[in-house]
Amino acid sequence: MAALHLTEARARDGATAVQTGSAPAETNRGADPAVVLIALGDQPLITPAVVASILTGHRGGLTVPTCAERRGHPFCVDRSLLDDLLTLPPEAGLRELFLRHPGRVTLVPVATDAILRDIDTPSAYRRALAERAGEAQACRP
């Protein structure tokens, strides 16, 4: 069963925003998700194929897409690590979750640099929309 939860969390750090968005998965234990996919709102070039690759590559723990050996977003957090995610101190940031569980990280190569790009301005958004008519740039080493 898949569920979608959107949040407009506005926080000074990524950990707090992710905790706010992930909390419904924790409080709605009836759904008991096997994995939570953390996706950023400023990456409009992420396609369903990228998400499918990440979910297909998930083996538990943390699953992160890579392009040219660089880690990107979105990423998966296994149910077994959800409590750790939700209790990260705000000053720690999300990187702390990966530092705590280095042996539980699975890297999934994808064929697009969309996982590395974010959109921070209206003009960058317009360029991204124009690109989306084609495709994001291919992943190059």
Characterize this entry briefly.
The protein has helices spanning 14-27, 48-57, 82-86, 95-100, 122-132; strands at residues 35-38, 62-67, 70-71, 75-78, 105-109.
Descriptive report:
This is MobA-like NTP transferase domain-containing protein. Residues 31-101 form the MobA-like NTP transferase domain. InterPro entries: MobA-like_NTP_Trfase, Nucleotide-diphossugar_trans. This protein is an alpha+beta fold and 141 residues long. The chain has one domain (14-132): Spore Coat Polysaccharide Biosynthesis Protein SpsA, Chain A (Alpha-Beta Complex). It has helices spanning 14-27, 48-57, 82-86, 95-100, 122-132, and strands spanning 35-38, 62-67, 70-71, 75-78, 105-109. Strands 1, 2, 3, 4 and 5 form a five-stranded mixed sheet that branches. Strand 2 (62-67) and strand 3 form a beta hairpin. The longest helix is centred in the first third of the chain and has 14 residues, at 14-27. The model is unreliable at 1-7 (pLDDT under 50).
Structural topology:
Blueprint lengths: L13 H14 L7 E4 L9 H10 L4 E6 L2 E2 L3 E4 L3 H5 L8 H6 L4 E5 L12 H11 L9
GO molecular function, one term: nucleotidyltransferase activity
Protein name: MobA-like NTP transferase domain-containing protein
Pfam family, one: NTP_transf_3
According to CATH, what is the class? Alpha Beta
Shape: globular
Low-confidence stretches: 1-7
Oligomeric state of the chains present here: single chain
Q: Secondary-structure element sequence?
A: HEHEEEHHEH
Kindly report the name of the CATH homologous superfamily: Spore Coat Polysaccharide Biosynthesis Protein SpsA, Chain A
At CATH level 2, the architecture is: Alpha-Beta Complex
Count of the domains = 1
Head-to-tail CA distance between termini: 36 Å
